[in-house]
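Narrative of activities, Objective 1.

The group set out to show that a structural description can be obtained from nothing but a protein's sequence at a throughput compatible with the screening campaign. Below is one input-output pair from the validation batch, recorded exactly as produced.
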Amino acid sequence: MTRGEDNARDRGAAIVETLLVLPMLLMLLLGIVEFGRVYNAQLSVSHAAREAVRFYALEGELTAADDATGNNDGRWASGIAQATAPNLAITVSANPTCDPNDFGDVGTPTTIIVDHTISFNIPFWQGGTFDLTGIGTMRCGG
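Output recorded for this entry:
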């Protein structure tokens, strides 16, 4: 064997090794990207719940139907949650109800729950969905 044949075999072995390792590295890289996307969505959902419960505890308006003025300017808890996480399809629920104008409710804790379902797709891996939940709690009336 000559020196040239050894170099050609080494190059061929390097190409085969690269082709064997490349799919795993690509899957790892895309998994990291998907994890970051899901984590960002979870942070957005949690922030939306905190902002919504703050408004709800002070104003006591969960949806537009509860808005006595009929003004649909997004100044209700679910509208604020949606404005805080504009790129996510979220659902908002409150328990228990809170009316800061009713002095019997002042000081009792209320909780807003914001839910979002996100899907992920990593090559060579079966895709799926995660249910993300953000919970915010605050006393009625501040």
